[in-house]
Write a structure and sequence with these properties.
96 residues, F1FO ATP Synthase, 0% strand
Length: 96
């Protein structure tokens, strides 16, 4: 994971430095690659956090089945909020 974050950070930092002398086609290709990496990073982090939240919630339900009603609603709300962050990233990529 650290390697992926370092690679993404390097690409974000290096892109403006090298984009000045390039043609419009090359610049748009670089932008597309950076946008793709942003969505991929958001999706991977969102998926990891959603799986962790679901795992903890299901573990809590397994330990105390009578608390399923109290655990399920906040879990669904949390999963929806996590997914909305990924969707907002996707929308912001299309608007940029």
């Amino acid at each position: 994971m650290k390697k992926l974050v370092f690679t993404a950070a390097t690409l974000f930092a290096a892109t403006p430095a090298f984009a000045e002398g390039w043609s419009d086609a090359q610049s748009s290709t670089i932008k597309a690659a950076v946008y793709f990496l942003a969505v991929a990073l958001a999706a991977s982090v969102g998926t990891k956090s959603q799986s962790a939240a679901a795992s903890v919630a299901l573990e809590g339900i397994a330990r105390n089945p009578s608390a399923a009603d109290k655990i399920m609603t906040p879990m669904i709300l949390g999963l929806a909020l996590m997914e909305s962050l990924v969707i907002f990233t996707l929308i912001s990529i299309f608007l940029a």
